[in-house]
Amino acid sequence: MSAPDGPTTGRRGLSLGDLVLLAVLATVLGFLYWALVQAWGALQLAMGPFGDLAQHVLAGGWMVAAPLATYIVRKPLVGIVVEILAAFVEVVFLASPVGPMLLLVGFVQGAGAELPFALTRYRRYGWGVFVASGVSAACASVLMGAIRFGWLQQDWFAWRVGLTLVSSVLLCGLLARVLGDALARTGVLDNTALGRARRAAARPAPQPHDEVTVA
Question: Does the keyword section mention Transmembrane helix (predicted)?
């Protein structure tokens, strides 16, 4: 099925169902992000002298919440909110070593990932928009890392940028679309904006009536 685009955001605020869904997404993805931190440590060891680049290989996985939530709910700011909530789960319940700074990281990365959807006024959800989401998230992530850690003055900066870009397109942008579609096929998202858009896209187009020729 092609990407179900269209005016599905409406003007109403978030429903109770949306709020529950966003809370569940944030919790599940918060645990996923924590698991990626553990994988990061193992990958650092496996990469040996290139271990400092391990975080960039996995970078996109830490930003998938924003495009996924935006794809499903299709309301402004939900991507940013879910990224911050997922970071909150990591900090409060899983004792992330990054600490409260992770909330700011979640905000910046969530804003970067949601920006392309906002530019379409939350009306376009084709593969290209998800690629743009990954690119935008990567730019936000690299910019913040360059400010916090001085990457511009360090070795491997080009590698950091390239790996973050590829990881973000694959694990943030495209993976969000794949996950959203997979969840929608199970029926659990039928009452969401994504579910409604998929039903509308699957509805057969009305056939024009045969013309009647008048003598």
Answer: yes
